[in-house]
Write a structure and sequence with these properties.
Length: about 575
């Protein structure tokens, strides 16, 4: 396991800020490359013009004709949160813009596989669609799109995944990552691409005079869903995505979000008035994702499409229960993965890439296992499971470390060994693939060769990058709330993280494996918690911490708390130190 080093960010310039903005928040934004309020918290009016995105003329022509002729439009989603929210945005948005015959469908992970497959096309025939609109997939669905076209259906692909050397035979494709596309932001999530299609369609209908005698539909009502899908898919929060996410969060906090998202916040124990991007990533998105991982994503989409509060609460409760099951399955699989890794690691040193398969694993959870292994070991990680129990087909998920493009690594393997990988796709940090169980040993060897050739050794050194130290007067509730609300924070625009030295006055174990500490710094007493921090030995009497400053809502009032993400002991712990509440690790 790579022991992280702590490095502090440096800013390239000093920005221009309103006098009322706390200096620490100004510094945070400057360290992320934003030097004005417009760059730090962009307004919706600063969104990039849809006319810059390629393929929209052909896409909106298809949709306009389908609406005018009352054709049957079927929006086909995907079985992750981005795909589910994109599906909900597509269905809601098309109905707002006048489509009267809109249905939706989503592949089942086990029975259909990924995306618009020929098998899914066979099942969609019962719906008799005229136009298929794919969201968050389609760019790699050559066979499925060909099958749909053979039935006489039109196909519009909206996607953000990187394309292969050949494009599918769709009637129109909208994807900012197509070669030669001039859209300045390549970071749109699938839900963001679909939202841009709707913006362009509204403009086309406006120019055609469709709204001359009626109020123009307000597509801002979809931004709560756009925010959730964007955060959940871990796309970088560039300025354009921050404008989308910020607007969606404001909608949710004002109580105007769709009833399904409000119900999910309720079952997750989150106050919707204080909802953050972190709450989306750690509370709402996992519950939506759980449906696609262990059950059927149609449950998640139904929750997002519901306008009935009672139905939405019932569906949210069901998703909450499925998520609890997912967590148990994930923990078991992760424990098994770590045990397997311990058997193959040499001298306690993890190989340059982790690639594991277990015949008993669930294909819907392998991505989470790969992510956990990547976080613990700071290595690219692959996890595979049978596509269904007893199947000879494997489905795998990959997660990468900063600086290493995992889809490019798969492309290198595919180029050197044609046919070894049956199918793959993804991004720089995450990818999915399929191959036969017979091919797994050859794939593992080819993958190791490619990664050892392509991966710079220095990338294997984990880093914790912080925003420096907080001053004593900045350890306050007001600053904690300012940091919480000063985002949105997320991928490539990270939540504020600080570091400094503290004395440990006392500590105790909570929830079996979390470490609760009382700290001292320059005469101040500060509460802290390190989730998963209990490793069987007491913390030292003096520690260097990387931490987040957050309001302590449990204690209320002016209370604050440090959430520790990295701890380095600076001195031996007092041998007489004991947990305050119990001496047993499982108290």
């Amino acid at each position: 396991m790579s022991i992280p080093t702590v490095r502090r960010r440096t800013a390239a310039a000093v920005g221009e800020w309103p006098a009322q903005m706390p200096p620490v928040l100004r510094r945070i934004h400057e360290l992320r490359g934003a030097f004005s309020p417009e760059q730090a918290q962009p307004a919706l009016a600063q969104l990039l013009d849809p006319r810059l995105l390629g393929g929209l003329d052909a896409a909106t022509a298809l949709l306009e004709a389908a609406i005018a002729s009352d054709r049957h439009i079927v929006v086909v989603g995907d079985f992750d949160c981005d795909g589910a929210t994109a599906c909900a945005v597509g269905v809601r948005g098309l109905r707002l813009l006048g489509a009267r015959h809109v249905s939706h469908a989503v592949p089942n992970r086990v029975t259909h596989g990924y995306g618009l497959s020929p098998h899914l096309v066979d099942d969609l025939a019962a719906l008799a669609p005229d136009l298929i609109v794919t969201v968050d997939h389609g760019i790699a669905c050559h066979a499925g799109i060909a099958a749909a076209k053979a039935r006489g259906w039109q196909v519009l692909v909206t996607d953000h995944h990187l394309p292969g050397p050949m494009l599918p035979p769709a009637d129109a494709i909208v994807n900012p990552n197509l070669s030669g596309d001039g859209f300045p932001s390549k970071m749109l999530a699938g839900v963001g691409v679909m939202f841009y299609v709707l913006l362009a369609l509204r403009r086309r209908l406006r120019d055609a005079g469709r709204f001359a005698a009626q109020a123009e539909p307000d597509l801002a009502t979809l931004l709560d869903l756009v925010a959730v899908g964007t955060v959940a898919d871990l796309v970088p929060l560039d300025q354009n995505n921050r404008a989308l996410v910020g607007a969606g969060l404001r909608r949710l906090r004002s109580g105007k979000g769709c009833v399904g998202l409000r119900a999910l916040a309720e079952v997750a124990g989150r106050d919707v008035r204080l909802l953050t991007a972190g709450d989306i990533g750690f509370a709402l998105a996992p519950r939506i994702n759980a449906a696609g991982r262990l059950d059927d994503m149609s449950l998640g989409i139904a929750c997002l499409l519901s306008d009935d509060p009672g139905e939405a609460r019932e569906l949210a409760s069901l998703l909450h229960a499925i998520n609890g099951e997912r967590r148990a399955v994930q923990q078991q699989m992760t424990d098994e993965a770590e045990a397997a890794l311990a058997r193959v690691s040499l001298d306690g040193v993890a190989p340059s890439v982790v690639c594991l398969f277990d015949a008993q694993w669930h294909p819907g959870v392998v991505g989470l296992v790969a992510s956990r292994l990547k976080e613990r070991l700071h290595r690219p990680a692959f996890a595979f499971a049978p596509s269904e129990p007893g199947s000879a087909q494997l489905r795998g998920s990959a997660r990468s470390i900063p600086g290493f493009h995992i889809r490019d690594a798969l492309a290198a393997v595919d180029s050197a060994h044609p046919g070894l990988i049956e199918r793959f796709g993804g991004h720089a940090m995450a990818a999915g693939l399929s191959l036969s169980i017979e091919a797994f040993p050859r794939f593992e060897a080819a993958l190791r060769e490619a990664i050892e050739r392509l991966l710079a050794p220095e990338l294997l050194q984990a880093e914790v990058v912080t925003d420096g130290e907080l001053q004593p007067d900045e350890f306050s509730r007001a600053i904690a709330e300012c940091l919480r609300d000063g985002g949105p924070w997320g991928q490539a625009y990270p939540e504020p993280l600080f570091d400094g030295r503290f004395d440990v006055l006392s500590w105790r174990i909570v929830g079996e494996r979390h470490l609760k500490m009382e700290l001292s710094m320059q005469g101040m007493r500060i509460n802290a918690i390190e989730f998963g921090g209990w490793q069987g030995r007491a913390p030292a009497s003096s520690v260097h911490l990387a931490y987040r400053l957050v309001p302590d809502d449990y204690r209320g009032g002016d209370s604050i708390q440090l959430v520790v993400v990295h701890r380095q002991d600076l001195a031996e712990a007092d041998p007489d130190a004991r947990p305050r509440e119990a001496a047993m690790p499982n108290c």
